[in-house]
Amino acid sequence: GGKGGKAAKGLRFTPVEANTADRVTVPQGYGQNVVIRWGDPILRGAPDFDPEKQSAKAQAGQFGYNNDFLSLLPLEHEHGSQLLVANHEYTDEQLMFAGYDAKKPTREQVEIGMAAHGLSVVVVREERRSGALKAVPRHRLNRRITATTPFEVTGPAAGSEWLRTSADPEGRTVLGTLNNCAGGTTPWGTTLHGEENVDQYFANTDKVTDEEHKKRLKRYALKGTDSQRRWELYEKRFDVTKEPYEPHRFGWVVELDPYDPEATPRKRTALGRFKHEAAQPRLTRDGRPVVYMGDDERFEYLYKFVSAKRMMRGSSAAAREHNLTLLDEGTLYVAKLKGDSPAGEIDGKGTLPEDGEFDGKGEWIPLATGDTSHVPGMTAEEVYVFTRLAGDKVGATKMDRPEDVEPSPRTGRVYVALTNNTDRGAAGKAGPDEANPRNGNKHGQVLEFAERGDDPTAKQFSWRLFLVCGDPEDPSTYFAGFPKDQVSPISCPDNVTFDAYGNLWISTDGNALGTHDGLFGVATAGRQRGQVRQFLTVPTGAETCGPIVQDRRVLVAVQHPGEVDGASVEKPASSWPDGPGKYVRPSVVSVWREDGGNIGA
Ligand code: FEO
Ligand code: CA
Ligand code: CA
Ligand code: CA
């Protein structure tokens, strides 16, 4: 069809057709390689991956499971090398261990699972001749952070009574980070990592007798008795009847200095506690970071944090030290959105209102500044630890699962991936509104907003839906007004990033169109605004994560390949990336143009 027509610069490749192939498909003329996969050794002394001889000790020196967010940072003195930082969101024991018994995991399996969580820092180097990107094992900067690595709690809720446990009566040191989904890269050379679905690690919420405490846990989706991975069998901190406040120590944004393998990673309480998807900063004109954040659950909120401090330029020790305090002081806000069309014109089916657009105004409602709460009836500490309750109190807008939120480095406009919400309009649930206009929303939408005066600290913004996703032939879809016969179908937008031309790149998770997830580029300005073009697809059962689009290379994290209901080591659903008879392994993939040219140029 007309898909090969004139495209925006950066998106001039032949779009990949939607498919269900058990591999990574890239456009004609592009090459690909696996950069690193689950179990590859990265630290000195770590053994090669042997799925039949796994141990927690080995895993703690190997690349973790389920790579999600990726960041690539420059390495000044090592030509052709960069520092790759990856999140390891969660483990899928059925695909990791032969003969796994979900009711009775062994201690070793639990400890391997904990070691496969967290973050990896690994140097990667370009192979000049082939164009491939390869991990450099045993580099001095390589690092693993796991579910047992000590973290320092910083910011206004550090030391709060809500964060204290028997192992940490000060409420300032947490062991581990969990469920790191997406994240962000700061202009001062650190990485941010969102702790997302941390509810699944905690057992016995149903047995909690303090009703007030139980209610708070449930507001954070904790429920039931046994946890999914049963870590509570071997570590009592994962049993809320034994360690009631341990869950409060997860669900934060984590900051890592990846250039210092000895640095203690931090949990930044000023950014609030919820199911953090990601955290991508933008600087104000006077150099203060503003961090946009989504809480990824149905009917949850959109947030921003505005720092009180300016970033110091340069890489002096003093600048690095100062910049590591930027996310500890400032104001946390939640968003309230109002459509500009009469409510009666929002029919829940995605029919455009009479003014031709889903659009309106928005307001940032302050929740807390430092030790001062702006929410009646809640202390500042409570606002940070129970941020969802603060959002409820001020009447924030319930969104269709806010995932990645990123400002365009070119225009400052901010893009919010709202992945889906099949409960929208269901009995007892919120109905459609102009920002979340479809009931039973299977395919999601991408919202674009502009801060008033292009000032990221503004209290007001204007917004419009940029994409209403799905099959272009479905009348409820919308591609910023671009002709729908010239776009790739897209469903369930999750992570977003930008290329140097200002195009938005979107990776998907959970494609509800019956084909595999993938990576898409779309122009945000000019005549091709709204023209979605698919760049790659991922193997069976996988979601596409962590996209990075550099001039000459695209990186994606292929997360949970082979994760299909009923699949196991014995009954695999995918043979990617190592072929039939091998364990399925989440991996990072690099893609480049075989003629050495710029991506999509
Ligand atoms: Fe882990 Fe919201 O995706
Ligand atoms: Ca409107
Ligand atoms: Ca995600
Ligand atoms: Ca997701």
UniProtKB/TrEMBL annotation:
Record Pfam families: PhoX (PF05787)
SUPFAM superfamilies to which the protein is assigned, alphabetical: Calcium-dependent phosphotriesterase (SSF63829)
Chain segments carrying region Disordered:
421-442
Q: What is this protein called?
A: PhoX family protein
